[in-house]
Amino acid sequence: MERDSMARGGTSRGPEGRQGRGGFPHGGAEEPSRQASWSRVEGPAPAPARRPKPYNATPRREGRGWLLPALLGSAAVLGAVALGVAASARAAERRYPPRGRFMTVDGVRIHYIERGQGDPVVLFHGNGGMIEDMLSSGLVDRLARRHRVVVFDRPGFGYSERPRTRIWTPMAQARLLRQAILRLGIGEATILGHSLGTQVALSLALIDPVMVKSLVLASGYYFPTARLDVPLLAGPAIPVIGDVMRYTISPTLTSVLLPALYKKIFAPNPVPERFEAEFPHPLTLRPWQLRAASADNTMMIPFAAELQRRYRELRVPVTLICGTEDQVTDFGRQSRHLHETLPGSRFVPVPGAGHMVHHIATDLVAEVVEQAAGEAAGRVPRTESV
Description:
CATH superfamily of the domain at 100-228 and 300-385: Alpha/Beta hydrolase fold, catalytic domain
Structural class: alpha/beta
Helix content: 40-55%
Oligomer: single chain
Largest sheet: 8 strands, mixed
CATH architecture of the domain at 100-228 and 300-385: 3-Layer(aba) Sandwich
CATH class of the domain at 100-228 and 300-385: Alpha Beta
Order of helices and strands: HHHEEEHHEHEHEHHHHHEHEHH
Number of strands: 8
């Protein structure tokens, strides 16, 4: 019987008859619970089943509740700053009102002044400047003794408009100012351009060589070179981003940098007291003038590259005057190079002068202009005085 029992089930019916090999239980009602207990000891518990999300459940956005208030707060701050900048610009205009007259040409309002009588002389200021740059130098008063002197605020500077619907290259500015000159009843004139105003003067001579009796180019930029200031100052001219900058950080940053900028453009000469007293410095911080200055600066290199292919087309007398210590435009790579490119041109270097040569050597610049005007009129040149 014992043998038959072992053959059939391998167990005995005694108190220990339900144990299997090795003492492990098997079969019966106790086996599942003991197996579960063993699995909890030997391995991790199974993950609970996840309930399916309803198809129309709104996703949770944990940790992003601050984003909308932060954006709204930033917009409010920027708006308040922009209003303050606009108010400061209007205050500057009340403090420094227009000094001349206005005319509207091709839908653009242009500000200009006139002084004196005689053969016309037209002056184009440089980048960031305006009529008061020429006035504070004394050049206008000096030339007005013998000439009818006209000075324009170039588009976007001073009180002249600069519509955003156009790209205001030096050539586009020259076309507009040519119409303004004709409106004043001036058929021909001696043209002086300073710094980037030289590109406008050169463009005018290419457009209408009959109007331009003679060119006097002071401290100009004529050939493309690598310049670090171009990308650094390009921000205010960039659409959208530039608009934000011009009404927020750019005016404050520019006001901080102005003393260093003035020091550089006048170096190695000191900044003249008359310039500090008479030039309307706050007007340069207005958002629309910052945009014009940045845009002109951005176009400076590519337009010089375009102009250099056309210098041989010039059919007017050209005089180049510049300071030998100019720290803005290298007089050797720019003015002297153009003099070598233009047969028959005159080159007048001013030893020890910087970029603002019309402030440092006012009488000499005036004499060069008068000499150029005299030669164009057929009078005998006075080369020994230069």
